[in-house]
Amino acid sequence: MKRAHTIAGSPEVRLAVRVRGMSHEQRFFDELASTTRLTPEFIVIRLHEKVDPDAELHITNMRTQIGGTYRVAWINTRSGGGPYAVGLELLDPEGEIWEPASFPMGMEPPLGPPVALLECLRCHQKISTPLPEVEAECLGEGFAIARHCDSCRATTSWIFSIEKTHEEPAHRMESTPSHSIGHKTGQSFTEQRLKGRAPIRMPIKTIRHKYGTMVFDVGETINVSRTGVYFATDQTYEVGGTVKIVMPYHPDGVDIAVPARVVRQDEPQGATRKRVAVHLTS
After folding, report:
1. Is residue 133 a contact partner of residue 116, using CB atoms and an 8 Å limit?
2. Distance of CA 75 to CAs 32, 109, 143, 153, 154, Å?
3. Which of 166, 198, 225, 278 has the greatest CB tally within 10 Å of its CB?
4. SS (H, E, C) 180-235
5. Cis peptide bond upstream of 248, omega within 30
6. Which of 145, 161, 159, 142 is nearest to 71 (CA)?
7. What is the pLDDT of residues 204-256, one digit of tens each?
């Protein structure tokens, strides 16, 4: 039975670890690294060596000098030469690896785990699934995870899949009323259609000034791209207005706000929340 691990939304925990194993190039390595997230049976580290999903590594806590064997559950290789974000599931501990004080207590993800569209590299089926064991900021290009495939009846590698928007009829975008797109031009929309939207759900915080007062709004993303975000909210936004975006947002995290401009607000029939599209201006 697959064990469930919750990493998404947990605070950062920095501890030095020693990592030994075989790299993607089948070369033995011995590297000092650091954790970023920590639970008794699952950790996330930053590693300069590229490793394969489902590979086994030996991790030693440099503070306690106790280690164990871990399985590579997922990795994101978009950084090119590293360091890579790697999620590791504990298989065989050699003792009490982590001190009790190492685990943050009472922390829960604010809006649940991120949800992503994955594609099996063996049979190419696609599924949309929650990934509580993954750091939300690691989902995207370069992400790969080892998980069971019902069609293949085996543990296979799955990659992050991006829904392409070029399949949408061009007239749908061109017929959008000009008053609903703010200052966007036809050329910029053509460029936007060529980009992929990643169907990721994660907490998002928007900051804006309204009637001389700073207004905060915490919602949830529907999809994201390199230049924009589409999110659900209970508040009303003005097309063309400027905002600042914090994503992924955690109430106990450090807010790093990115400037953005509202380009669209939708009110889908039957939906209880509005949907807002913003273009990142930085």
Report:
1. no
2. 17, 21, 6, 22, 19
3. 278
4. HCCCCCHHHHHHHHCCEEECCCCEEEEEEEECCEEEEEEEEEEEECCCEEEEEECC
5. yes
6. 145
7. 999 998 877 889 999 888 888 777 888 999 899 988 889 999 988 888 777 78
